[in-house]
Design brief:
The protein is α/β, with parallel strands linked by helices. It contains 24 helices and 31 strands. Strands 9-8-11-10-12-13-14 form a 7-stranded mixed sheet, sandwiched between helices. It is flat and about 95 Å long. The two termini are 58 Å apart.
């Protein structure tokens, strides 16, 4: 018989051993447990396809449960063996002698779907599917449809496919195939980790274990085909034994449930920190924009995003039991001059303001015999006396001009852990202001003492600055939960060209230029109802940017030149896009102003409805300069977006230049975002590009645009 006997799959339920007659006489079906208890405190588990070798993926879950002395019932299921790793095995789920809360399914392909069906018939409330259910497109689609159908018919929930399982350290449960849990036992704590993909949970756990970080639970989400991160998080947000959440995200899925989870966690004062895989700068601009949309969604829903994986593991104590702050300023108290300087440098790169102690604070310290050099960093001598460090920390924590304090410890923390850490612990217990530490030296005892005191400890200037930025930019949820997940919505669309789209823009309050729409095969006019200069551009639902195909002509002064321009742009567009339908041309008056910007609305497959502001004329892609918010937005959010786009500084009267009409621009942003509220027909995407911003009080005007609707 082959070594991996579990690969023979589970026997069909019809072939399972019949239940004893005494059990068959029982007619009362026990009520199902609350799903929160099933997920967070399972009392009994089944391993479908359990293997006999403790070192491989199929044998590891049973080995871990025995190694950790899991106090609940464990039922290995294997159709080919009576004993697995010396433990009695059952041939099928229907033969089990008692109820099961969670079934980990280790068989693959169609056998995994059959096992989900068997879970439903056995009234098991949660099935964890380890296999990714790979195959060609048709096979993959069919398997997923069967899995969802089985889950819905039987009323069970499915985690996965592609889930490595889950671990609940307080219950001594490690129901997982991940080898990281065989190396080190997880420590119980009050954080819940939710990790996308199959291996991310183990990566997160092993890195956290090296920092002695404890968890209330760890869950490998897999593909989130049925049970989503948002649903799990919303359940866990109500649990009194959980204080916060760490998320490892590949992308955003099921944003409606994710937003509800964020709102519930904020209401319960339980912070959420997310590390999301970020698009590399070398990726196309469209992917950069999608990443900006994900950033905007997380920020609007009160989820702090960190850029470094290590920060995710180190920042939690800084946020726990705290609410978002309105400030953006930090103070540094350093017992290591070089590390303090590096941290100050990185804070500047992260857009975190650094403010030192004021003159009065320095004078009070000087009177106590503590002289600090000039500069924004409160720099003490190496290995300062505990009383001196405590006095400077107290001044920094009491100062009204900063919102967080970062203490930098030197190498003395490795030699005298108690002396180096006691000032921080005492100061943190007294002050309400957040205090975190940067400790680059290898000082395990100091790290443990600070962690036990609930003080966040960063191990590099980069993670400390990333954590400070994430905390100081953290804001409460401001976005209402989406009514539906955008990724599940139909994609059939109708494209509108500029002539059609701009009439809709006018209806929502965005000014458009005087325009004459000349339909195709129509004689050019002998005169125009408005004076020159003119702009001519081709109209086609298949050509989004006429300038890209030579379909636009500017600065036309006479009617005869106008007729020539109409013919030229039409010929150019037809030659460049021979399959495009040309609906004629638009003749507009040439408008002048201070700057051109682009405003877009779209229903992002991850983040939902969003509105984007960027510089026009292709500057967004060139400089990666944009502001993104979930739609709809209000006037305050619109002004925040204007402030965020670096290229718009000239519209704010930079260096005595004429200021632009920012009020009109803000109103246009609000109007564009209102497409999120239109339900019939839904606007899938729209853009005003370019939008001309005139001088202060002179308004804006849409020069071109497009739209896609259902």
């Amino acid at each position: 018989m082959p070594r991996d006997e579990a690969a023979t799959a589970v026997a069909p339920e019809a072939d399972a051993k019949a239940a004893p007659a005494a059990e068959a006489r029982l007619a009362i079906v026990p009520a199902r447990k609350e799903f929160a208890d099933v997920l967070l405190r399972p009392a009994s588990v089944a391993i479908v396809g359990a293997g006999n070798e403790s070192g491989d993926a199929r044998g590891r879950p049973l080995h871990l449960l025995r190694q950790y002395d899991f106090r609940g019932s464990v039922y290995p299921v294997n159709a080919s063996r009576r004993f697995v790793q010396g433990t009695h095995a059952w041939p099928a789920l229907s033969a089990l002698p008692g109820p099961v809360d969670v079934a980990l399914i280790l068989v693959e392909g169609d056998a995994a779907i059959d096992a989900v069906e068997a879970c439903g018939r056995a009234r098991i409330p949660l099935a964890v599917v380890n296999d990714a259910l790979a195959g060609d497109d048709d096979v993959r689609r069919a398997r997923r449809e069967r899995l969802l159908d089985a889950a819905r018919r039987h009323g069970l929930r499915v985690l996965g496919p592609g889930s490595a399982g889950l671990a609940m350290p307080a219950s001594d449960l490690a129901l997982t195939t991940d080898p990281a849990f065989a190396v080190r036992r997880p420590r119980a704590g009050r954080l819940m980790a939710l990790a996308a993909g199959g291996s991310a949970m183990g990566t997160l756990f092993s890195s956290a274990a090296a920092r002695d970080l404890g968890f209330a639970g760890l869950v490998s989400l897999g593909e989130e085909l049925d049970l989503s991160l948002g649903e799990i998080g919303e359940i866990a947000a109500a649990d009194p034994d959980i204080d916060g959440f760490l998320l490892f995200l590949g992308g955003l899925k099921r944003t409606a449930t994710l937003a509800r989870f964020a709102a519930a966690a904020h209401a319960a004062n339980k912070p959420i920190v997310a590390y999301k895989l970020r698009r590399n700068a070398a990726f196309p601009a469209v992917l950069q924009a999608k990443d900006a949309a994900a950033d905007a969604f997380l920020a609007a829903n009160g989820i702090a995003r960190v850029d470094r994986f290590e920060t995710l593991l180190e920042i939690a104590p800084l946020l726990q039991r705290r609410r978002p702050t309105r400030g953006r300023t930090a103070a540094i108290v350093a017992a290591d001059a070089s590390a303090g300087a590096m941290l100050a440098d990185r804070l500047g790169a992260e857009d975190v303001a650094l403010d030192g102690l004021d003159d009065l604070a320095r004078e009070r310290l000087a009177q106590a015999g503590i002289a600090l050099p000039a500069g924004p960093v409160a720099e003490l001598s190496p290995a300062p006396k505990p009383d001196a460090m405590r006095a400077v920390l107290d001044e920094a924590l009491d100062a009204p001009n900063n919102d967080a304090v970062l203490a930098v410890l030197g190498a003395d923390a490795a030699l005298d852990a108690d002396g180096a850490t006691s000032p921080l612990i005492a100061a943190a217990q007294r002050a309400d202001k957040p205090l975190a530490a940067l400790m680059m030296a290898e000082a395990p005892k100091a790290l443990r003492l600070l962690s036990e005191a609930g003080i966040a400890v960063f191990r590099s200037p980069e993670t400390a600055a990333d954590g400070a930025r994430a905390f100081l930019h953290w804001s409460p949820p401001v976005a209402a939960a989406p009514l539906a997940d955008e990724e599940s919505l139909p994609v059939a669309a109708r494209a509108l060209h500029a002539g059609q789209a701009m009439q809709i823009f006018r209806m929502i309050g965005i000014t458009i230029p005087t325009m004459f729409w000349l339909k195709r095969d129509t004689e050019p006019p002998r005169s125009m109802p408005f004076p020159p200069p003119y702009v001519v551009k081709v109209l086609s639902p298949h050509i989004r940017h006429p300038a890209d195909v030579g379909g636009i002509a500017l600065g036309i002064e006479t009617v005869s030149a106008l007729r020539y321009a109409i013919e030229t742009v039409t010929v150019n567009a037809a030659a460049a896009e021979p399959d495009a339908y040309l609906d004629g041309v638009a003749i507009q008056r040439l408008e002048r102003g201070l700057a051109e910007v682009a405003i877009r609305f779209e229903r992002d497959s991850e983040a939902g409805p969003i509105v984007t502001l960027a510089m026009g004329e292709g500057m967004e892609e060139l400089y990666d300069d944009r502001a993104v918010r979930p739609a709809p937005i209000d006037r305050a959010a619109a002004y925040a977006m204007i402030d965020e786009v670096r290229g718009l500084v000239r519209l704010r009267g930079y260096r005595n230049r004429a200021a632009g009409d920012l009020e009109a621009l803000a109103q246009a942003l609000v109007a564009m975002s209102s497409f999120a509220l239109i339900t019939a027909p839904r606007v899938l995407a729209a853009a005003v590009d370019p939008l001309l911003v005139r001088g202060e009080g002179q308004g804006i005007v849409a020069l071109d645009g497009w739209m896609r609707t259902e």
